[in-house]
Amino acid sequence: MFNELQQERINAIIDLKSGRKGFYESHEIQVQAYKEMFNIHFPEVTIDRPLIGPQNFTGVTPTYNLKDQTEAKSMAKLPYLVALAKIEEDRREKSIMIISGTVEPAKGIEKNIKETTLIT
Prior knowledge:
This protein has helices at residues 25-41, 78-91, and strands at residues 12-17, 49-56, 63-64, 67-68, 95-99, 113-117. The model has no long low-confidence stretch (mean pLDDT 84). It is of the alpha+beta class. The protein is elongated and about 70 Å long. Helix 1 (25-41) links the parallel strand 1 (12-17) and strand 2. Strands 1, 2, 3 and 4 form a four-stranded mixed β-sheet that branches. A two-stranded antiparallel sheet has the order 5-6.
């Protein structure tokens, strides 16, 4: 019996990795974070699936074997990792460096640099 190739149109975010050793948990979490950030900032174009692919270096032209990470168990860690990152961010003093003006090489760049603390 002839099986028809089923096609499905999806929006995917793909993270191509240059390593040959397969998929790591950190890759799974990273591509899920990309998917969530994209969906937050561009709600009109929802990403359906996060995919990762390690590069296969055998041969002249590298190839990628994509793996769907939608059901990866490590995804459950993402909200907790985000919460931990927020705690760490709140502990740090927030400052920015402002570089302005015309740089005069003979006088150095120090007068053009100012660091200021952000008030939150």
